[in-house]
Design goal:
The complex is a heterodimer of chains A (about 70) and B (about 500). Chain A is an all-beta fold and about 70 residues long. Chain A has no helices and six strands. Helices cover about 45% and strands about 15% of the residues of chain B. Chain B contains 21 helices and 14 strands. In chain B, strand 11 (about 370-380), helix 17 and strand 12 form a beta-alpha-beta unit. Classes of the chains: A mainly beta (about 70), B alpha/beta (about 500). At the A-B interface, loops of A face helix 12 and helix 17 of B.
Chain lengths: ~70, ~500
């Protein structure tokens, strides 16, 4: 689990992982509706992370915990 | 214009690496790269923010340097206690030239050194009592201080003193902020972690202090973050922002005060100059207070104009018009500077090795003078710094991370730049080699270099150094008998 930050706005989310200075666009997010938001997210560099599905945050950026599924190196 | 091709540069790196033992070579190889603008992510070509190799000469600092020296130190109306043995504070005292307005020792304390001067008995029995006593004495002797920060040196973390408890108690007694900062020098690989720790301390102990209190804001409030007022840099930046109609609420942290920092959550936009040392707090404020932030670059008229327009784009037409007015006002002045110095500096090549933002930010200023940066590197940069650098640097130029003394010397010998810009630890080596040198940490006791006014000084300084007739007359003592032909070339 890692602390991450989701920035940007709907349709153009940006993923930020401070520990690794990784700032990258999110190309796909599993759930992206006001009621259910999160799940598997795929980054532009090919990395995959998982954030617990939750109601969409009222405002970005937001700090979250994410699980690494597949990090692109 | 670059003298070396990609292959030659790659061969140079390999040649320099040749002297290392196998394991060291493998490690250092990852920190040296030839710039390729087509690469989007720097980590594909360069590794950064890793522990320096034991045995090589590195010029990195420690977490205490990052927190006390960089982020907290310039806050002028607070007293920063170097908590621990006397050396760390004394040998870094007043060296960074963070200018400020005020009467030192009365209402400002920037160049003074406050230390708890640890002795053996404090290590054995703990230094908390001493710290409490010290804070009491400070209150008595310097009643106009607006707060205290406790900057831990290594022993504090090793013996496990509870500086947080002492600080909370003292803050309750005095009614002023007393901020414990856990910036023990052994944390992290360089001063970079110290910046982060200092930012976190500001986040936890400073920013919440004025939450919910009244603030008379305007729609044009901004904060200048990450400008440490080296030689007056923040002042020459600030006047441009004010001239275009913005209100600068806070300066972080050069010539800054604790009150300004507490008011920062009310601004409309955070303007970040030194991304490396202050991006953490900007990101925090974006999340918590919904304040957008942007990076800007005030080195050289091209970049200043670009940045002023980018800043203005965040505001209404009044500011946009103000930005154009400022740019138009300074344009002829800057043209005069360029007309004067460009013919003298045209085509000269520069190698840089500094920290923070300068390895990429000053490239524009050199280009305005017709000079070319052929090598650059960060002391303590991270991946995101190199991401930003790759686009600014020319193709096939050298990039080096945490370069060692040996590597830097070899690179300079082979690339033969006309000017080297780095710090005090490199200065005399290169000057003795007959290479013109400017300190780009402290602006070689000159400055400011930011903004339009700064560019005029920057151009003069570069000309003064580069075209100084002394370089041709220098010969390193160990080269006395060598062929004077090669000497002239090196100079």
């Amino acid at each position: 689990m890692a602390n991450i930050m989701i920035q940007g706005s709907k349709g153009a989310y940006v993923f930020y992982l401070p520990k690794r200075d990784l700032e990258d666009a999110i190309v796909s997010m599993e759930f992206d509706t006001p009621e259910k938001w999160g799940g598997e997210i795929k980054l532009n560099n090919g990395g995959m992370y998982y954030i617990e599905p939750q109601p969409a945050p009222a405002r970005l950026p937001i700090s979250l915990r994410a699980k690494r599924l597949d990090a692109a190196e | 214009m670059s003298a070396l091709t990609r292959e030659e540069t790659e061969a140079l790196i390999q040649e320099v690496l040749e002297v290392y033992p196998e394991k060291a070579k493998k490690d250092r190889e990852k920190h040296l790269a030839v710039n390729d603008q087509s690469i989007e992510q720097s980590k594909k070509c360069i590794t950064s923010n890793r522990k320096s190799l034991p045995g090589v000469m590195t010029i990195r600092g420690c977490a205490y340097a990052g927190s006390k020296g960089v982020v907290w130190g310039p806050i002028k109306d607070m007293i920063h206690i170097s908590h621990g043995p006397v050396g760390c504070g004394q040998y870094s005292r007043a060296g960074r030239r963070n200018y400020y307005v005020g009467t030192t020792g009365v209402n400002t304390f920037g160049t003074m050194n406050f230390t708890s001067d640890f002795q053996e008995k404090d290590i054995v029995f703990g230094g908390d009592k001493k710290l409490a006593k010290l804070i009491g004495e400070i209150e008595q002797l310097f009643p106009l201080n607006k707060g205290i920060s406790v900057q831990s040196e290594c022993p504090i973390g090793l013996i496990g003193d509870d500086i947080e408890a002492v600080s909370k108690k003292a803050a309750a007694e005095t009614g002023k902020p007393v901020v414990p900062v856990r910036c023990e020098g052994f944390r992290g690989v360089s001063q970079s972690l110290g910046h982060h720790i200092a930012n976190d301390a500001i986040r936890d102990w400073v920013l919440p202090r004025r939450e919910g209190k009244a603030f008379e804001g305007t729609p044009y409030d901004v904060a200048v973050i990450g400008d440490y007022n080296i030689g007056g840099d923040a002042w020459s930046s600030r006047i441009l922002l004010e001239e275009m109609g913005l209100r600068v609420v806070a300066q972080w942290s050069g010539d800054g005060t604790i009150a300004e920092m507490e008011k920062t959550p009310y601004v409309k936009v955070n303007l970040i100059h030194c991304y490396r040392s202050m991006n953490y707090i900007a990101r925090h404020m974006e999340e918590k207070y919904n304040i957008p932030w942007m990076e800007y670059n005030f080195f050289g008229p091209t970049k200043v104009a670009e940045s002023l327009r980018a800043i203005a784009a965040k505001f209404d037409d009044k500011i946009k018009e103000g930005a154009e007015r400022v740019i138009a006002k300074y344009q002829p002045l800057m043209q005069a500077v360029i007309d004067k110095y460009k013919p003298r500096l045209q085509g000269k090549r520069v190698m840089l090795y500094v920290g923070g933002l300068r390895p990429r930010h000053v490239i524009g200023a050199y280009e305005d003078l017709g000079m070319e940066v052929v090598g650059t590197g960060y002391e303590f940069g991270h991946n995101d710094d190199y991401d930003r650098t790759i686009k600014d640097m020319g193709n096939a130029t050298l990039i080096y991370d945490d370069v060692t003394g040996f590597e830097f010397e070899e690179f300079v010998k082979r690339v033969k730049p006309d000017l080297v810009g780095s710090g005090i630890k490199e200065k005399f080596i290169f000057q003795k080699m007959g290479v013109p040198f400017r300190q780009m940490h402290s602006w070689d006791y000159s400055g400011p270099y930011h903004g339009y006014d700064g560019f005029a000084i920057f151009a003069r300084d570069m000309d003064m150094t580069l075209n100084n007739p002394c370089w041709g007359k220098m010969q390193a003592p160990w080269l006395k008998k060598a062929d004077s032909e090669t000497e002239k070339k090196a100079a």
